[in-house]
Amino acid sequence: MSWSHIVFGNLSVDALPLYSAIAATAASVVVLGAVGTFALITVLGKWRYLWSEWFTSVDHKRIGIMYIVIALVMLTRAVIEGVMMRMQQAVALDSPGYLPPDHFAQLFSTHGTIMIFFMAMPFLTGVINYVMPLQIGARDVSFPLLNSISLWLTAAGAVIMMASLCLGKFSTGGWTGYPPYTGIAFNPGVGPDYWIWAVTLGTVGSTLTGINFAVTIYKERAPGMRLMYMPLFCWTALCTSILMIFAMPPLTVATGLLALDRYLGMHFFTNDLGGNMMNYANLLWLFGHPEVYILVLPAFGVYSTVFSTFSSKTLYGYTSLVGATICIAVLSFTVWVHHFFTMGQSADLNAAFGTATMMIGIPTGVKIYDWILTMYRGRIRFTVPLLYALAFLLLFVVGGLSGILLANPAVDYQVHNTLFLVAHFHNMLIPGVLFGMLAAYHFWFPKAFGFRLNETWGRIAFAFWASGFLFAFMPLYALGALGMPRRTQEFFNPAYLPYTIVAAIGGLLILAALASLFIQLGVSISRREETRAFAGDPWNGRTLEWSTSSPPPEYNFAILPRVEGKDAFHRMKEHGEAYLRPDAYEPIEVPRNSAMGPVIGVSGAAVAFGLVWHIWWMACLGLLVIWGAVIARSFVRNTTRVIPASEVEATERRWLDAVSRTQRVTRDDELQPANRGLAVASAT
Amino acid sequence: MSEFSLKHPGINLGANDPEAHEAAEEVVFGFWVFLMSDLILFSLLFATFVTMIDATAGGPGGKELFDPRSVAAETGVLLASSFTFGMASIAMKYRSNRGVLLLWLAVTLLLGLTFLGLELHDFISMIGKGAGPDRSGFLSAFFALVGMHGLHVTAGSIWIVVMMVQTLVFGLSADVKIRILRLGLFWHFLDIIWVGIFSVVYLRALA
What we know:
- The structure holds two protein chains of two kinds.
- Chain A is mainly α.
- Chain A has a single domain (46-594, 639-669), classed as Cytochrome c oxidase-like, subunit I domain (Cytochrome C Oxidase, Chain A, Up-down Bundle), CATH 1.20.210.
- Chain A is 65% helix and 1% strand.
- Chain A has helices spanning 3-8, 21-44, 47-55, 60-90, 101-135, 144-166, 191-219, 232-264, 277-309, 318-331, 347-359, 361-375, 384-407, 409-415, 419-449, 455-481, 497-526, 568-574, 596-612, 616-634, 645-661, and strands at 588-591, 640-643.
- The mean pLDDT of chain A is 96.
- Chain B is elongated.
- In chain B, α4 packs antiparallel against α5 and α5 runs antiparallel to α6.
- The N and C termini of chain B lie far apart (52 Å).
- Chain B has a domain at 74-207: Four Helix Bundle (Hemerythrin (Met), subunit A) (Up-down Bundle), CATH 1.20.120.
- In chain B, 79% of the residues lie in helices and 0% in strands.
- Chain B is mainly α.
- Classes of the chains: A mainly alpha, B mainly alpha.
- At the A-B interface, α7, α8, α9 and α20 of A face α1 and α5 of B.
């Protein structure tokens, strides 16, 4: 073995993406983007600020924002990849188009992997992180340092995804990575290894997040807040966390055993010597099906909040919504076989799983009616979050119905592996999850940053997202029914062409939507003085997060609120108990910042990168650093600091003084500059 | 809330150290949740093993490979270590003298290392007979399940060493006690997993 092999493993100049101009361009954009960001931070002299205020922060609010930043960066990459695929199919009739098959296969693999693990998961984890502790009246999550470690593990996975664009090729095995195709016999390259380790890093982070959130909700609720007093968003966060605790380990096992096959020549999923790929299918979907509810339940929670707030009404059918959420969480573990109806099990088994699948439509239907009835006779304002929620309400029903069709094994046999399926799950995930996360971003942005987002650009972005979704994915239902297989790089049936062209136009509209989202952010920041809402309550909110300043202080609540019912802040406002000055303040203990998160994240990325390229010293060193850091940290005694009562008092006084100077606005002026975050207490 | 409403499963520090007892509640609950997640991991490895029992691909099966004496010794040693850890927990709860605690922790560590030595010996002799994890699906599943348990015992042993050092350096402070509580849960958990491995993997093949 040569020295260069010991130092660099399998990594060599050949790993550079010079095989295609498009791949080389993409890699250059990533590298230039990274270098540019580094240079910008250096020129601005912001490294110290970023390190001490953000990277090492264990404050759930900062961690939540960092999660969402990761999600937006990864969303950008994965949207571009999706649009590239739509463009390819628009020109692929009797023509190889502009993307070679191998590159096309990498694109659908990275697109799916990123959208699930590095866009949707960080987005919802970020939103829950920011909002849930505030809504239950807590000062932080139960394990703030663990929270930071989860964030950095997710970031490490995202970095590995980005590295795969620049060095070597990613997997061509789709986001599910089915062996034996992804086994060493058919795929000796680094692609599946990139997939395995990026996903594993993200999964471990999510498992720890699930534990953290569940314990927080069980143990950290404010005095008096019973479970049935919690905002519905917290209920969905709880159910999602429990699903993470139970559903992430199957994926860890699946990727771990696949890695053992690839690295140590074992035979879990190989074609020979007793391997059985059906075990992989079962393990993966034992994770994969609950995963879709991990994704969509928090969005349901966001929609519940949005419908209720922008109708100025309490949530209709709260108890039934809680019951439906729990129902969905339980049923999600009983349907996984519907992802492989065609893979050889008996008709009876398929029938059982098909029936279970259709049953999920029942609690979901309950929710739809509850949301509609929440709006009934409400004081409805068509703000951007409500627009997303309304689009969701209509489109999600369409997607749900196509799901009921697919739940029938006989129908599934006809359309499996076609674009019908692609249309179905995008119909669930875009209006379901993405619109929910965008609504959340819009809704809670003023809480996090102290000013509202620009409404006009928000509406433009919404119009592009909604129309782009319709144009891009409705044709895929037709294409699927016509029999066009998914993941097709080139086709020969002219009947497909009109639909693929429409879908490509839809892709461009979605690109415009993404651009509008960033323009909106820029416009909002530059005009932030017009929309400041420091007083904290721009939407006449009903739950406790709106009872703090915007942004909230590090400790969230100077005095932990006492909760006596649902819609706690709404009650406080009605009873004139909001914005009261307490007689005395007490010192508050908060956790100190810690470098553990960054250390474990960087080491985790090093382990993954070392394993991908067989740079064994790097992998071993990374593992040693992780374990050494954990042990060393357990000897650190001084992990908290105390904010003195005088500082708390000064912070609170500054806010309460601002509140008393602020003009209350009615809902008529909600979107006007007059709205400085203080609402007229009545429902109008 | 009175301190009695804050009980968690497992040994409670209770009235002997009310302050540590109150602090223990949330972290011990969190650790139980973690163990639940870990249990899913093991249960799937069990399920994988069970589906691959016959996937020997013409190679040796459990009956030819497993040595009953070695399995008996491993089981005895590990069960004994659970007992000695129980003694360590009781010493931590009722004695202010940390010498007894350290002694029981040391005995537990010794038993854990003995278990690991026996298991490693088994593995090496199996690989020597050409029955390594790359021989068949059955052996892959065997090494993954039993090896995963072994890795956990290794992590637990390192943890015991760390806690012995912390007991010496910091004394029996609240956070050291709460960590030993969690270490205890982890150690007994591994014992329960071993009972599963003994029954499903070894007893089934040898009986």
